[in-house]
Amino acid sequence: MALNNVESLFAASLQDSDLSAKQKAVLRASLTLFADKGYDRTSTADIARLAGVSEGTVYKRFKTKRDIFEAITTPFVDQVLPTAAGEFFKEISTAGFPDFRSLLTFAVHDRIVFGLANRRELKIFVQEIVADPQMFNALAARASQLFTKGLAPLFKQFQDTGELVQWDAIRIGRYIISTVLGYVLPSVIARTPEQNVDQATQEIVEFLLKGLHP
């Protein structure tokens, strides 16, 4: 199972940046605080304290709290999301699923577990996406690009066997993603009690198989 830890992937993405050690500490601390307290309830003083730097050091590179947030979201869109998706697609493409049900069951279960395991960090972006159309468009474009490249060949395989409707990969992907998000988002945003993941996977797969059958 391609279970990526978003916080670890973000820390790894900072290693290739031109930021100083203190500036990297500021971004790591910001991600933690935004996830724990929320963007609006986090102050630059909080960030400086957790990062172990002065508040002046924070402002030396990042003029506003919004600048800090954008410095976090950029590597997420450009590096963290592609890395997590790449590992997921690599595992799927080499697994050799015998039928579309098997592929769907694996993918749905894997992404539910991923979403729940990383819901602290994902909550930051879900809340901001609602308020920021530009961020939504950037993420949607990146996700569509990754999805088409990663799953289109597999979709074609099961379309050829008559198991999958003859839609383009983006349309199929949106159908699957929107259904999975319907389960994951309440837990990400409102911290609702988790349902049984295996049961949820089975219910989602049965629903999707009916909707995606030719």
From TrEMBL:
Domain of life: Bacteria
InterPro entries according to UniProt: DNA-bd_HTH_TetR-type_CS, Homeodomain-like_sf, HTH-type_TetR-like_transc_reg, HTH_TetR, Tet_transcr_reg_TetR-rel_C_sf
One MF term in the entry's GO annotations: DNA binding
DNA bind region: 43-62
Gene Ontology process terms (BP): regulation of DNA-templated transcription
Record-annotated membrane-spanning stretches: none
Domain HTH tetR-type: 20-80
Keywords carried by this UniProt record: DNA-binding
Pfam hit, one: TetR_N
Protein name: TetR family transcriptional regulator
Provenance organism: Schleiferilactobacillus perolens DSM 12744
Organism lineage string: Bacteria, Bacillati, Bacillota, Bacilli, Lactobacillales
